[in-house]
Amino acid sequence: MSNVTIRHVHKHYADFHAVKGISLEIKDKEFVVLVGPSGCGKTTTLRMVAGLETITEGDIMIGNKIVNELPPMDRDIAMVFQNYALYPHMTIYDNMAFGLKMRKFDKAEIAKRVNNAADILDIKEHLSRKPRMLSGGQRQRVALGRAIVRNPKVFLFDEPLSNLDAKLRVQMRVELKKLHQRLATTSIYVTHDQVEAMTLGDRVVVMKDGLIQQVGEPLELYNNPANKYVAGFIGSPAMNFAETVIEQVGNAVYATNPTMKIRVPEQIAARMGPHKGKPATLGIRPEDLHMATGADPEELSFDAVVEVAEQLGSEIILDLKAGGGAMVASVEPTVKVKPQQKIRLGINPRGLRFFDAATEAAI
Amino acid sequence: MATVVSVSDGGIIVGKPKWRPLENEGNLALLLLLPTVALLLMFIAYPFVRGILLAVTNSKVGVIGDFVGFENFARLLKDPIFHAVVYNTFLYTFVTTVFKLILGLWLALLLNRDFKFKAFTRAFILLPFIVPTVLACFAWKWMFDPTFSVINWMLFKLGIVAAGAGVNWLGDGDMAMLSIMIVNIWRGVPFFAISLMAGLQTISPDLGEAAAIDGAKPLQRFWYITWPLLMPVTMVVVLFSVIQTFSDFQIVYVMTGGGPANATHLFATYAYQLGIGTGLLSQGAAVSLAMFPLLFAIVIFQLMYIRRVETR
Ligand SMILES: Nc1ncnc2c1ncn2[C@@H]1O[C@H](COP(=O)(O)OP(=O)(O)O)[C@@H](O)[C@H]1O
Ligand SMILES: [Mg+2]
Fold it and tell me: CATH code at B152?
């Protein structure tokens, strides 16, 4: 079994508390992505799993065995670094064979494994070259190859795609996914790119300031963000927020501010009891907004002023002034609007989210 | 000065080109090189040619001398002191370079780690390199003094030698050789340490970590990753050191003056003693020149090796 358990783990650097008690259960064969902004402690967490960084407090277990004190080589993990960390003075073959040589595999077995990995990754013709003669994408494959020849219990990836250009990044993302489907090795993958997280992860862990914000399958994070931070981080373009006050008017509950009066859908209104008369943040994704028509009720629409319209072909991204701040809407590509034009936007009520203004937790 | 400018039909301004010799890259390069070339000619080429001319005459101080061909060199080949000088110089260069490399590398590896007062320690390490050699040599001379030697005093206090039976550091031929080697190593280690540390810092720590994950133990990481990647820097540092050590003068001159009984003469000190000390200018020049082909061969060999390492 190659499950990984992280239990109440802390990391203190000299005077900096980088990881503040995270717990996470990664199942055998699972692909888990740690995502969060730069400096939130993703790399530190990964390096503690690898054994490259000491654990200040808490336990890390690989395959139900505590590895806190084990050196990296005894943890049976492989790591892919952001800058590939290929040995520049060795050929591609030797780069991939190095880990096996150190572990005293016999020559025939090494050759078999390296050639097999080179086949899978399509780098067979480069085996006798040096890393510097390869392109970024090819180096990335070599780094993957070095990881897979050892057939370790766990793969660790630290932003492996962030040095590639946008097109190659998308391509390698797909290949990583295929590779995982083929090898089914437990993987922990660190990135700051939420698109990578959503597309690659069986489960995604959103981190901020050394703490886990939410753990869940990609769609779960998208549909049910636990707090305002996750709501704003997951999804592109990001969710819009507007500061409102919750008010009861007759049977209905409204979220209002000087430019909006939006009716809170029934199932959320039922949970609004303690929030009545208090401020709350309304959240709505750009894709849950549309140009209002006569069919849109007054209480699920609001006025906005177009600032910029970006035609993407499949949709138009509107940058707007609305709800007392800036908002973004994704509308039909056929919509015709001009800058400074006043429009009315309709809300898809299923997309409405509310967050406590003080704690930022989802209501 | 007015230039004639005419406007052609197409509106393109056609002027008589000014004479601008410095816009020609070749001319500019020549001009910029001039001061350097002049200095090199004056301070390197002239003494070198002068040295060759001296070496093929029999001039002494106060005697212009006549052309004698290779007589001075033939005499050197039969001179037992010169034989000792060749042996000494190679031994001195080889032994000190090996120790400077080992100690320098060891220090560099230590300094490359993270620890408190790192910047301070790094600066401190450079001290032997910064102190004027002659000054340091006088201090060493006192430490090796037969009567007042602090080193002997320590050996005595540690119970290694008996009272009054201290090591005769500079009085015995072999010990004197050892002593000047120690001083040369002491003085040369900082250069190795700092240069190699700079080399180490260009090696990404990720490589060591990748190797650790790949299962390499610390010694293996050094041998398979650090050492080969540091090789180009190491070779250049060794090259510099060999050139300097081979033609070393100050340490020997101050510490032993080539003695006792010519036991510690190197090329430079022997040339000086013959040429200036004894006044046999032409023979001194011949000794200096004899150093040249040997050093040249060493340097060519090392440069070829550096080339190979760098184009790997
Ligand atoms: N060796 C270190 N010493 C001190 N602080 C560090 C060290 N490594 C990382 N940090 C700090 O810890 C925090 C988390 O870093 P890291 O895990 O690299 O973040 P990221 O999520 O971007 O990968 C950052 O604020 C960083 O400055
Ligand atoms: Mg990072």
Answer: 1.10.3720.10
